Amino acid sequence: SVVIQECYVQNTAREYAKLYAAEAEPLEGFGEVPEIIPIFLIHRPANNIPYATVEEELVGEFVKYSVKDGREVNFLRRDSEAGQKCCTFQHWVYEKTNGNLLVTDLQGVGMKLTDVGIATLAKGYKGFKGNCSFSFIEQFRALHQCNEYCEMLGLKSLRTTHQKQRKATSTKSKNLPNSSTVKKMVPKKAREHRDFISSEH
Fold first, then answer.
1. Residues of the chain with pLDDT > 70: what percent?
2. Which residue pairs, CB below 8 angstroms and at least 24 apart, start in 156-165?
3. What pLDDT digit, counting tens, does each position of 59-100 carry?
4. CB half-sphere exposure, 165, CA atoms < 13 A
5. What phi and psi, each to the nearest 5 degrees, are found at residue 124?
6. Which intervals hold domain Alpha-type protein kinase (predicted)?
7. 105 is catalytic
């Protein structure tokens, strides 16, 4: 059921958060670590909705530190300490699971988080039905900006390979006399190539 899956997602993410805290807390200057609150499944056989979840009520301003859609990643939360530590937590889980799993939808009050999601690169990773699309992992990899907490944990930048490719392409275009002619040429070539393949003409 959806409710059972919700418990599994949040409590799995909570286990990762505990491991993250165990590594981060001893580091000098890291400070408080985000915590994912537990969610409990209750069974009420007499009720027409037999399963429900119970969790601690969070009092205060509820903030979404990371959103499902990667395009919005980093903007809402870049400046807050909790937001940066959530970003680092995502990076840490991503690295720990060799890029197979990402905790998404980090939201809550201060450092207490709830209602999180999990995206997996492959269906059934660790017996896990990812409840978010794996494209979130691609978006995260492309958009994550490491911060001081990533550095404290010694996490590897996700941008290095991406930047190398970009540098290679940008140096090529510099050798050509005029960048605007390059821009005009590229779509034209692509168009001819497409017409040839589709053999419409």
1. 70
2. 156/95, 158/91, 158/94
3. 998 888 875 554 554 455 557 899 899 999 999 999 999 999
4. 5
5. 85, 10
6. 1-158
7. yes
To the nearest 10 degrees (0 to 180), the angle between helices 2-24 and 81-96 is 100
User: How many Cα atoms are found within 13 Å in the side-chain-facing hemisphere of 128?
Assistant: 26
Per-residue tokens: 199:
């053999």
**Of the residues 69, 79, 105, 195, which is catalytic?**
105
Return all residues near 58 (Cβ < 8 A) that are at least 6 apart.
37, 108, 109, 112, 114
Q: With contact defined as beta carbons under 8 Å apart, do 132 and 117 qualify?
A: yes
Residue 142 banded pLDDT, cuts 50, 70, 90: confident
pLDDT at 186 over 90: no
Condensed to tens digits (0 to 9), the pLDDT of residues 28-41 reads 999 999 999 999 99
> Other C-beta atoms within 10 Å of 55: how many?
13
